Amino acid sequence: MLGGTALLAAPAVNAQSEGVAVSNPATPNAVIRSGAPSANLPALPPRPAGKSTIMGGAIQDVDPLRDQFILNAFGQKKLKIFYDERTRVYQDGKPISLLQLASSSHASIQTVLDGTKVFALSVHILSQSPQGECHGRVLRYNAASGQLAIDSALTNEPIKLLVPAGTPVVRVGQGAFTSGHSGSTDLVGGAIVTVSFAPDGQGRNTASKVDVLAVPGSAFVFAGSIISLDLHVGSMVIVDPRDGNNYLISFDSVRTPQSETLHVGQQVRVSATYDGDHYVADEISAR
Questions:
Q1: What is the pTM of this model?
Q2: Residue 61 DSSP code
């Protein structure tokens, strides 16, 4: 979701904005704790993978001992964010030391789930109010008032946004899906969306664009390597090299008997239907 956020929930597009933050900053890592790291220290693990989300709000209660701070996101409850030497920090677009991270009334945080924790990939401290981007599943949409509520993996509370009349609502992703009709009628319960927005100065997050990644009943084809598999519950996670995203897909061994021979690391092609909650496999074939 928050003054800006994002899920991935299921499929996702890479986060792009929310306060001037970028999903894949090209600027060299600017986080420096003290001096050069000791050769005796273990190497840091890779940065958490997965769908990143940009969250805008105020940074509070920075705790350098626990490597955490509180983000008071626009229109949402406060959220604890964790960071470490892998986190990049910027002041108005210029890299600064992690030691300079401090409370700020305007910030944009690029976040990702690291297990159950929300981890900061980058922190952009801003002189101006940030924009935002959130990713998640539509809970409800009122076409008359323009009120949109989104369920995001990063917050327990729905993210509430205003979608003014005329706001672009566009399907993105696979050709078979994008060739269908786009528009606000896609904002149905269960639809997966990414919303770019900015605070309007009255405590409301106002959408400037809505990307629709899936609506209930839409069909998709995924191809890639199985990185997680649970034959007991009937679920697998595929990383599709075409977009670099991970997709959680449910399957029924009766409906797809070939699923009984699946294994982690296997290359597969999956035809699936999105049911408003999960991608459900219709056909699975080894590659």
A1: 0.60
A2: E
